[in-house]
Amino acid sequence: MADKTTTPPAAGSIRARVRAEMIDQIKTIARRHIEAEGANLSLRAVARDLGVVSSALYRYFANRDDLLTALIIDAYDSLGDAAERADAAVPDRSDVLARWLAVAHALRTWSVDRPHEYALIYGSPVPGYAAPRDTVEPSTRPVMVLGAILADAKAARRLSNENATPIPTALRLEILRVAETIGAKVTAPIMARAMIAWTQLFGAISFEVFGRLNNTIDHRTDWYDYQARTMATFIGLT
Amino acid sequence: MADKTTTPPAAGSIRARVRAEMIDQIKTIARRHIEAEGANLSLRAVARDLGVVSSALYRYFANRDDLLTALIIDAYDSLGDAAERADAAVPDRSDVLARWLAVAHALRTWSVDRPHEYALIYGSPVPGYAAPRDTVEPSTRPVMVLGAILADAKAARRLSNENATPIPTALRLEILRVAETIGAKVTAPIMARAMIAWTQLFGAISFEVFGRLNNTIDHRTDWYDYQARTMATFIGLT
DNA sequence: CTCGCATCGAGAGCACTGCTCTCGTTTCGA
DNA sequence: TCGAAACGAGAGCAGTGCTCTCGATGCGAG
Question: What CA–CA distance (Å, rounded) separates A175 from A181?
Fold first, then answer.
């Protein structure tokens, strides 16, 4: 969270409840503004909508970037939730292909439904950079889902054997470290392919959300599905 | 260009020359500011750097968005140039794999050298969307290079035969229209793979430029090269 | 060669922004 | 219960995009 403005009032008090509600309302209204007109978030406009004077907001967020950071964290969590739920909803846990497709489509659906929130987390870093420490943990949640799928795919031997292309040693070690981080002890070539596919997925979503498909591809769900399936084959998921 | 502010003075005149120089200076300074601190471009700051009062800029650009649009067009052209030059620099025109790699690396190099300009054109649409008509033609230049490579690859029979995955008809037609647009009369499955690879490349660049590789992959040129090579194989370029 | 018009930069001004500081009021907890 | 902490209102500062007016300057048609 982001309320280093004042020392937080002790947990049980009425003030603590009101404060939490206030923070929630601020974030909700701010999210509405962002969804309406992009990252040009105006604190004063949020304050107006909330029926409060602008300086009051500074009791809850040290500055505009702090508010944005809070929204970014929430967005990551929301996206992570969506991915995890989509994965969990596949009954046959060993059907790793279905799980990959479910997660892939969940990522896209979440994104096209909230283009500006997507832009907030996967678009260009907005104001003065500085992705704060607090954002890195939530940002890993979606990729952890991929890790689970990979791990289960390996366990179920539903991962085709790699046709290895040589990888420079130093890079290979970094890739293996990524595999370890997301809890999938697969070989470097397979992990590399998974990372490539993951990158492709977000490239596809970015292209769609940022308007790169306009006047080109109208059957977007079909196109995305085709990409996701092709990349699943590419990884070797069966 | 973007100077609907006033009727442009007749071509030969001194005023026309001065005006063109002024526009250039404004864009140069604006570009410098963007490269220094992102898309939060301040017209007044540009005016100050130029030793001129802010209202004077409005003789040359109708508003801030117009200036940004001009910068976006220039960025597209610059990136297109880089891609075309990289392609042209490969002596053996039939070595389509080398050409693909050259273009891929040129795209990345251009982008990591100018992260904020890259964000301008491939990041989230900044203020109120509205990519103006003038931007669409320059934005196609990089992908036209891909088209040329594909066309030559087909002509030289250096494109592996596809292992076709069925594509929904409507989508297939759209993909074929893309192929036609970029001047590569290849089959839909091959074109689809090319588009997937292209999407992957920009996903990879975005991940790197927007900081998604921080604390994860440090050998970035190696990693990108591996991705580009893998995608070349994926397309079937040999 | 000249004279009216288009273009130019300066400057003031408007509405807006993020953010700070002060000042009474309310609420908490020791 | 009473001092300290937290709160919202309000004024104010520096900055922004953009508009309008006003003299000065260069242009091209006569």
Answer: 10
**Residue of chain B whose alpha carbon sits nearest to that of A225:** B167
Helix axes A96-113, A64-88, angle to 10 degrees: 150
pLDDT tens column, A36-68:
888 889 999 999 999 999 999 999 999 999 999
User: Residue A238: pLDDT above 70?
Assistant: yes
Separation of CA A238 from chain center:
25
The sign of the CA dihedral B75, A36, B132, B4 is negative
Number of C-alpha atoms within 13 angstroms, CB side, residue B61? Answer: 22
Triad A91, A227, B192: Cα angle to 5°: 155
Question: Do A91 and A31 contact (CB within 8 A), yes or no?
Answer: no
Q: What pLDDT sits at residue B202?
A: 98
Backbone CA torsion sign across A7, A11, A13, A19: positive
pLDDT in tens, B143-173: 999 999 999 999 988 887 766 689 999 999 9
Number of Cβ within a 10 Å radius of residue A165:
12
Name the percent of chain A lying above pLDDT 90: 80
The pTM score is 0.94
| B59 Cβ within 7 A of any nucleic strand C atom | yes
Angle of helix B43-50 versus helix B64-88 axis, rounded to 10: 80
Q: Which of A124, A216, A219 to mutate to test the interface with B (most CBs of B within 10 A)?
A: A124
Q: Is the CB of A43 under 7 A from strand C?
A: yes
Among A38, A124, A203, whose Cβ lies nearest the Cβ of B119?
A124
Tell me the average pLDDT of chain A. Answer: 91
Residue given tokens 């994860």 in the structure block: B216
